[in-house]
Amino acid sequence: MLNNLGGGDDAAAQAIINKFAEEVGRCGVKLHNDHDDSEGGLRLLVRALSYGCDGRIKSSIEENKEIIERVLKRQKENSLFNELTTALKLPIGSIQEASQRLATFKAAYFSPSRPPISAERGQRFRRRRTPFQADRGQRFKLIPDTPGARK
Asked: What band does 126 get if pLDDT is binned at 50, 70 and 90?
């Protein structure tokens, strides 16, 4: 119904579409924030984008959609490790039990069939170097002291 309104350059129709999409987007965010239903919130945000909104409303809805997608991805990755953390909290009664657990963990969590967990944008798995650590063969450049810098 709303898609039929957006056929021309009618500013009033676009304002109605934007307002409706904004309200549907707010409902999606509220569903995610207040009711812990991220999947339902994501469905509402996708629906809001399908109405043909534009400008600030569209960018706001897209940003919220990306945030909820990241949350869902993290929840999925965390669920993979819930079983492991639960098992690690249990006391080990014997060496045989410890070796059985280790074999189970290796088979379950380090198998080639398990998909690797990917890093998010900007996340690093390597240790960062401090400014005073250099790679082999790298030299530090001395910065000349400027007058008045020590005041």
From this structure: very low
Residue-wise pLDDT tens digits, 48-64:
999 999 999 999 999 99
Cβ within 8 Å of residue 87, ≥6 positions away:
101, 105
pLDDT tens-digit readout, 12-39: 999 999 999 999 999 999 999 999 899 9
Tell me if 69 sits within 8 A of 45, measured CB to CB. Answer: no
Q: What is the 3-state secondary structure (H, E, C) of 97-128?
A: HHHHHHHHHHHHHCCCCCCCCCCCCCCCCCCC
Domains of the chain in start order, with CATH, are 2-80 (1.20.58)
* pTM (2 d.p.): 0.55
Q: What is residue 5's predicted lDDT score, i.e. its pLDDT? A: 52
Cα 8–12–15 angle (5° rounding)?
A: 100
Rounded CA separation 97/111 (Å): 21
> Which secondary-structure segment (H or E) carries 46?
helix 38-49
Dihedral of CA 19/24/27/28: which sign?
A: negative
